[in-house]
Amino acid sequence: MRAVLPDAFTEVLARHGDRVAVTDADGSLGYAELGARARAAAKRLARYDERGERLRVGLYATNSVEYVIGYLATLFAGAVPFLADSAFGPFELSRIAEDCGLDLLIHAPSADVRAVADETLTDDGEFGYLTVSRVRSHDTPRPVLLDDTEVCRFTSGSTGRPNCIEFSGTAVSAAAANWAKGTGLVAEDRIACFAALSNGLAFNTSLLAAFLPGASLHLSHGLPTASRVVRLLENTAATRLVAFPALYESIVRRAPKEGFAAVRTAISSGAPLRETVREEFTRLTGVPIHNYYGVAETGPLTYAPDGAGSGLGAPLPGVHLLAEEQGIRVRSESMGSRYLNAPGLFEKRVDDEGYYHTGDQGRLLDGTLHLTGRTSRLVNVGGRKIDPIEIADVLRAAPGVLDAVAFEAENQHGEPTLAAVVAVEPGVTAQSLRTHCAATLPSFKVPGILRLVDRIPANSIGKPSIERLRRLLSAPQSN
Amino acid sequence: MDSSALRSKILDLAIAAGDGSVTADELAATNYSLRDVGFSSLSYMRLIDSIENEVGVYLDPEAAIEHYETIDSVTALVLASGAAADA
Q1: Could you say which of A374, A393, A422 is where a domain stops?
Q2: pLDDT band at A479 (very low <50, low <70, confident <90, very high)
Q3: Where is the AMP-dependent synthetase/ligase domain (chain A) (predicted)?
Q4: Inter-chain contact B48–A444, Cβ cutoff 8 Å?
Q5: Hey, which residues does A299 pair with through a beta bridge?
Q6: Is residue B48 within 8 angstroms of chain A, CB to CB?
Q7: Quick one: fold of B3-86?
Q8: What is residue B39's predicted lDDT score, i.e. its pLDDT?
Q9: Is residue A469 part of a domain?
Q10: Of A133, A261, A362, A430, which has the fewest CB atoms closer than 10 Å, so is most exposed?
Q11: B16 min Cα distance to partner chain A (Å)
């Protein structure tokens, strides 16, 4: 089967030749240069092949020009890129490597990859500051990829095992084309992208989508504080800002006077944006924030072109969306195929008509989607979804812990965060529990609010009462 | 502002920037390590914003990670950033 994405990228890289394709704080590449760099790196990757079947290459790094080179190189080498969140810790990384049978890992030299790799491969600088390591092989057979799978991305699974979604090249290509068309991306656009390219928002809105019309992609890594965002916007004269709610909150806190002159469109996703933040951002900068609704498994689904109000917009081209009593279900041209490492789970969420059941509740009003709730138990903290059951299990395994419940609560800033109430023996401290969690969980999964008690308050049938637990958080800590 | 007053201010700002369960006592028990009390990236963003607002310096979030580990290292970074801004 002929792959779709190498041809798609080859075509756009040739078509836009001298235009700027991608920049970061350390450099800039035109389309033709990006193509040349990616092909050189692809040749190097092909030499690392030991199995004679499609290489599986994990990308485990923050945004940079080199990240884009590594992604394209993997496609050009006929290999399959697995885009892992750089915030994943060693535990999740090793689960991914083993579950998905990764061969190689492209990563920053400073990243702790000892859990999965011990051989750094030599190169001649084709990957820039990034390094390629060979992943240790496992005795167990690895799951077979579908023939048409060209990209794999991850979504929050439970018990620390991120689910690996297989995407066909056709789906990735359709997501980009429909986004570019549905949101009016043009060659003159300069996209400042602060969301990680491993994340669905950035992947679908800023990578192939940016390159199709010949727009330029401007990347930044590290904490996107308002001051840094303003500097990048000023340096690049960006016309689009792709970010998540925490960044908009930061801008509202700092209230910058300048930096947004060229920005026409701001896109927020990952987690709900508070209405007060949206209004204040637009008042300060004059830039509307456009909502977008997407699901990791299905790609981008809606977009709000006018940027006003709390609605999530109308379905994008290629999307059929039904908002019914049993929840929102969708069929899109950008749908994933299945989970590589969780057989049958994805298929269970797709009905006989080919609609994926999102787990979200909502309604369409005048063709605009409004979310009203979720049926999923996952907690969304700053755009990262966390399974509270997984966190409670980790806490229960800590020495001196009698029981633990994790749940969503508001922090002192009115934002959703993960809270845990833990029944402990004398001598256990919040500090020791945090250290315990940090040893096995990535930092974003460590509860932001920890409350230690003698006993978990329960309701009349013996189940933990979330209402009582929430009230307990607002009472002063007694121990 | 002298360094002791600045440190005290940064301590207050850090407690305000957290999710709500970090106290001055807990910070004292960890030698004022923000890492050890589980300061998240969202909390760091709030802290950097509030320091920039209140002290009037630009803090580079790309500065080496050790600058953001404790109240004392953040204080040193703010002092160095202020000195650079004054120069």
Answers
A1: A374
A2: very low
A3: 10-336
A4: no
A5: A295
A6: yes
A7: 1.10.1200
A8: 86
A9: yes
A10: A261
A11: 8
ipTM: 0.89
Dist. CA B41–CA A236, nearest whole Å: 25
Closest CB to A253: pick one of B41, B49, B58.
B49
CA distance B55 to A466: 40
Q: Residues in chain A whose beta carbon is closer than 8 A to a beta carbon of chain B?
A: 25, 222-228, 246, 249-250, 253-254, 381-382, 411-413, 415, 417, 429-431, 434-435, 437-438, 443-444, 446-451, 473, 477
Residue A200, min C-alpha distance to chain B (Å): 20
Dump pLDDT digits (tens) for B41-60: 889 999 999 999 999 999 98
Rounded to whole angstroms, how far apart are CA atoms A416 and A307? 24
Q: Are residues A356 and A427 in the same domain?
A: no
Neighbours of A364 (CB within 10 A): 18
Interface-testing mutation among A220, A254, A391, A413, with chain B (most B C-beta atoms within 10 A)? A413
Average pLDDT, chain A: 91
> Quick check: B66 contacting A, CB < 8 Å?
no
Share of chain A above pLDDT 90, in %: 65
Return the amino acid letter for A283: R
Query: Under a CB-based contact definition with an 8 Å cutoff, are residues A222 and B61 in contact?
Result: yes
Domain ranges of chain B: 3-86
Query: Per the CB < 8 Å rule, is B49 touching A447?
Result: no
For residue A396, the enclosing domain spans 379-474
The average pLDDT across A43-58 equals 92
